[in-house]
Design a protein that fits this description.
It contains 9 helices and no strands. By secondary structure, the chain is mainly alpha-helical. It folds into 2 domains: 77 residues; 114 residues, Serine Threonine Protein Phosphatase 5, Tetratricopeptide repeat (Alpha Horseshoe). Helix 3 runs antiparallel to helix 4 and helix 3 packs parallel to helix 5. The radius of gyration is 17 Å and the shape is globular. The termini are far apart.
């Protein structure tokens, strides 16, 4: 999975590495069905595949279903593992962005993603990746809101706060989330000048 992430960041095809990671985590999860961490890693592997497909305009709804599939069966019970909710928040974030690009309603995905990010943060208040997903979800909500609307300003403000907190906790996220923070700041400055 590390190799797949490296290739993805280099904008090189991570498909082979993703296939290896899928096989490993599927077998591990089958051998230890009680181990939630393997399920989280399955979702993270599918999230990498999603990111590659999104970057190449090849994502489809089945890929989002595959990312949710490992974790949905365990959601009937509250978990003490924040990574469960953080991984789901990221998938909701990606699906919301995908839907908004297609001019479709993404309110359910935005709401569910924020619920998942907040659950992760209730367990681990400084989890940088959950803070980053929360910020990105608010930014998507700001993009979807009407121009000049109070909701847009509030969403942009919340996006900025969450993204700044994420980067304080983990400065390495600046590579992936720095542009989102700049966009939130730009939206706020536009609202202030209107």
């Amino acid at each position: 999975m590390t190799q797949a992430l490296y290739l993805l960041r280099q904008e090189k095809d991570p498909t082979k590495a993703i296939a290896v990671a899928r096989g490993f985590f599927r077998k591990s999860s089958e051998a230890s069905p009680w181990d939630v961490d393997y399920r989280v890693e399955q979702t993270r592997t599918e999230t990498l595949a999603l990111r590659w497909a999104l970057a190449n305009g090849k994502a489809d709804s089945a890929m989002f279903d595959a990312a949710f599939a490992p974790l949905v069966p365990i959601l009937a019970k509250e978990r003490a593992n924040p990574q469960v909710y953080e991984a789901l928040a990221e998938v909701y974030e990606l699906r919301a962005g995908w839907l908004l690009e297609r001019k479709k309603n993404a309110e359910n995905e935005l709401a569910m993603g924020l619920v998942m990010a907040n659950k992760a943060l209730a367990i681990h208040p400084t989890l940088a990746t959950a803070l980053a997903s929360k910020g990105a979800l608010h930014l998507l909500r700001a993009r979807a809101a009407a121009r000049g609307a109070k909701a847009r300003t509030q969403a942009a403000r919340e996006a900025k706060a969450s993204l700044e907190a994420a980067l304080r906790e983990n400065p390495l996220l600046a590579r992936e989330r720095g542009a989102a923070l700049k966009e939130a700041e730009r939206l706020l400055s536009q609202e202030g000048s209107e």
